[in-house]
Design a protein that fits this description.
single chain, 16% strand, 287 residues, alpha/beta, Rossmann fold, eight-stranded mixed sheet
C-alpha cells in the first residue's frame, strides 16, 4: 500500500447518520473499512489529509463525536455511551469488521468499543491515547477545577474565536507545523459548546479504561508524537506495553496531533501498519 496523491481521489463528502445522530466524513470505496475518532475539542476535518492518504482502495469514515461539530451531545458524556453511538453508526452503515483509529479521547472511546463489541473491530490504532488519565500531567485537568476551571474553559474559547479569521484560511490539507495548524484547531474548538466540552472532559477523566488494557487481543499500534505535552511518549509507550503484542511508533517532530503537525510522517506510519496487517491472517474474535 502506498500513499495516494490528493489529486487522484475524490475529496471526502459530508453526511449525517440519523440512527447514531453523528455527522461524518466519508472517502474511498474499497473493501477494507477504517473509522477515525478524533479527540476532545477536535473535529472530523482533522482527519481530512488522512482520509485522502488512505486512498480509494479503503473506505474511510471520520465522525464528529457527540458534542462536537454537527453531532449533538444528547446527554451522552460517558465514554461508554459515545462508544455505543459509534457502534450504532457502524451497524447502520453496515461496517464490519473495521480498523478503528482513536486519537486522545477518541482512543479512550476506541477501547470502550473494542471491549464492548469484539465482533466489530479487527485492528486497532491508538494515537496519543488518553486512557491512563491518572498518569497524565496535572494541567490536563485544569478545566475541571471547579468554578476556576469552568471560567478558564469559557475564556479560552472566547479568545480562540478571535483567531477565526486566520484559522479559516488554513486548508484541510497542508504541510504541517505547529502555529497555523494550532490556530485552525483552536478556531474549530471555539465553535463547540462549552458546557458539552466540560461534561465530556469530566467523562474522560472519570473513565478507568486503562485498567483493562491487557484484555485487548487485537493487532494494535500505539502512535505518539515526539513532543506530546498531554500524553507524553513515555506514557504512550507504557500503554503499548500493557496491550499484548502491541506495536509502538513515534512520529518525530510532532506534538499531541501528529496527523495535523506531521501529516506525511503520520500517514506513512499508519499505512505501513495497515499494509502489514493485510499480509497476515485475520485474528479470531475473542469474548
Amino acid at each position: 500500500m502506498t500513499l495516494t496523491t490528493t489529486q487522484a481521489i475524490e475529496q471526502p463528502t459530508e453526511a449525517f447518520c440519523a440512527d447514531a445522530r453523528l455527522s461524518y466524513l466519508e472517502a474511498g470505496s474499497g473493501a477494507r473499512t477504517v473509522v477515525l475518532l478524533h479527540g476532545w475539542g477536535a473535529f472530523k476535518e482533522l482527519w481530512w489529509s488522512t482520509l485522502l492518504a488512505l486512498g480509494p482502495d479503503i473506505r474511510a469514515f471520520a465522525p464528529d463525536l457527540p458534542g462536537h461539530g454537527g453531532s449533538p451531545l444528547d446527554g451522552d458524556s460517558r465514554m461508554s455511551q459515545i462508544a455505543a453511538r459509534v457502534a450504532r453508526f457502524c451497524d447502520a452503515r453496515g461496517l464490519q469488521p473495521i480498523t478503528l483509529v482513536g486519537h486522545s479521547m477518541g482512543g479512550n472511546i476506541a477501547l470502550e468499543l473494542v471491549l464492548a463489541r469484539p465482533d466489530l473491530v479487527n485492528c486497532l490504532v491508538l494515537v496519543d491515547p488518553a486512557v491512563q488519565a491518572q498518569e497524565m500531567p496535572f494541567y490536563t485537568r485544569s478545566h475541571l477545577g471547579g468554578m476556576y476551571g469552568w471560567t478558564a474553559l469559557r475564556t479560552g474559547l472566547m479568545l480562540a474565536r478571535r483567531l477565526d479569521v486566520v484559522g479559516r484560511r488554513v486548508p484541510h490539507v497542508h504541510r504541517g507545523g505547529f502555529v497555523l495548524p494550532a490556530i485552525r484547531r483552536a478556531t474549530y474548538m471555539a465553535r463547540h459548546d462549552a458546557e458539552a466540552l466540560h461534561r465530556l472532559l469530566a467523562g474522560l477523566f472519570a473513565n478507568p479504561i486503562g485498567q483493562r488494557l491487557a484484555e485487548i487481543k487485537l493487532p494494535t499500534l500505539v502512535i505518539t508524537g515526539e513532543f506530546d505535552p498531554l500524553v507524553p511518549p513515555a506514557l504512550s509507550q507504557r500503554i503499548a506495553e500493557a496491550i499484548p503484542g502491541a506495536q509502538y511508533a513515534i512520529v518525530r517532530g510532532a506534538g499531541h496531533n501528529p496527523m495535523d503537525e506531521r501529516p506525511r510522517e503520520f500517514e506513512r506510519t499508519l499505512l505501513a501498519f495497515l499494509s502489514a496487517q493485510e499480509r497476515r491472517p485475520a485474528p479470531p474474535n475473542y469474548r
